[in-house]
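Could you please review the protein record set out just below?
***
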Amino acid sequence: MFKKVLVANRGEIAVQIIRALHDMNIKAVAVYSTADADSLFVKLADESVCIGGPFPDESYLNMAAIVDAAVLTGCDALHPGYGFLSENADFAELCNQCGVKFIGPSAKVINLMGNKGHAKEAMKKSGVPTIPGSDGFIDSVEQAKKVAHQIGYPVMLKAAAGGGGKGIRKVADDDELLKAFQDTKREAKLSFGDDRLYMEKDLNDAKHIEMQVIADEHGDIVYFPERDCSLQRNHQKVIEESPCSEITPDKRKELGQIVVNATKGIQYTNTGTYEFLMDQDHNFYFMEMNTRLQVEYTITEEVADVEIIKAQILVAEGEKLPFTQSDCEVKGYALECRIDAEDPSNNFAPSPGKITSLHQTYGTKGVRVDSGIGQNDVISPYYDSMIAKIIVHLPTKKQAVHKMRRVLNEFHIEGVKTNRDFLIALLADKHFLAGDFNNNYIESTFLKEWMKKHGKK
């Protein structure tokens, strides 16, 4: 059993990991940048180590400093959270070389699934349906044009090492291809240090469906109810819900078997999430796998009635999963809204600053607020702008949405601008309420109407 674990992250996810560790009687060590010295996660930890300046590459991306902190404080293991180094195979390998257990999959599997081209080939070998596209990487504009003509426009150019919505361009025809190819290649190099690209058919009327899975070292694999993450802006999720209103129990079981087979095929352990596009005929096409915890793991916890971070820790300790597949049937409906410090009326520009007043809704049935900030805290310009995740879990979508709107209306913050009113309007949208939306709905339809009413003149 672990006695002490280092949390290699910040903000709300660091808070949740520390709380899980304390529930399991494990001491938590926080690492922090100079910008986060007074943050909640630092105060909650049993020990804390400053690892550098405010810029991520000075601190939360500094592998050597983080592993040094883990070794010097006597940590048995390290939890990477999400973002930063959570999907960095070199970091996972470095931890293990230094005698610190990385709470996640092996470095080998992270490396395999982190390269989208290699991941697609691995999924094909496991019988997982994939989106029509290039057979491997695209090396030139001429090759890109040839593949585009084979699968038909529109297409998506994607960075092989991409993630987080970066390194992606939609291309409508030959005229757009040259610039898109050059821009995507440049962005991929800057963001990921890898400029290799691949191409896929753009399924613009599809839903973005995810299924999270967890596997222990004893061969047990459990899949969780799917999440509908189609409500996105600029490839970033806005609202997530589980289960998807268009997926039947039989389809859920079918998708679950697909991910179980894939998990076995790549010898995956710990938790990860398979992302699919689902077309109008309810066919699934693999997009990518996230080899880590995700922001929206919360709604999966609520609907499946499990504690995923604790299960991750148990798996890393070599224990068997604390639940079975039959324990993880759908229980009600859950949705998550992300409160971000941004100004929707000004093209969602970031809104860093000091929070001078804050009221978050606690103490009401079915409502969970995951946050790493409080009054007088500062939303830093150096990191993600998320203030809080609000999760509502009730028997039906109608009940949950109604309560979420009430909770958002009660949510009060001063000192920074937020997307609260945008979320409230989206929750009232008839297409959202009916489940009649795809992964382009916000940008193609909803946002245009909203901006007419609320955008800057």
